[in-house]
Amino acid sequence: MSTENIKQKSGILTWSEENVKNVPENPGIFILRSSPINGAIVNIGTSTNLRIDLLKCLEEKTFPDVKFFDWYITNTAEEAKSIKKEWDIKYNI
Fold first, then answer.
1. 1-17 tens-digit pLDDT
2. Distance (Å, rounded) from C-alpha 84 to C-alpha 49?
3. First-to-last CA distance in the chain?
4. In which region does residue 11 sit, left (phi positive, over 0), alpha (psi from -120 to 50) or beta (all else)?
5. Domains of the chain, with CATH numbers?
6. pTM score
7. Which of 35, 42, 43 is CA-nearest to residue 12?
8. Distance CA 90, CA 84 (A)
9. Residue 70: C-alpha distances to residues 51, 73 (Å)
10. Where are the beta strands (DSSP E) in the chain?
11. Which carries the bigger pLDDT value, residue 2 or residue 41?
């Protein structure tokens, strides 16, 4: 796993406007979950600005089953895409 490219991570958070507004405006990867259990993944996404993209998902209700999320900062969106490819395979997304 390309964890050496992860600069900071959040831990699993409740899917709420307050929590999303506290997400850094950095490139990275995010995981949307239906429960805090690792296998309950609804979507894995990459972003050039985590806060903006997560706010968009929240406001547009793009993934209605989401109850939790976590984020991971990378130096670039390209690093995030590389990690996403690995995680898509690992979590069978």
1. 467 889 999 999 999 99
2. 15
3. 16
4. left
5. 3-90 (3.40.1440.10)
6. 0.92
7. 35
8. 10
9. 12, 10
10. 8-9, 13-14, 28-33, 41-47, 68-73
11. 41
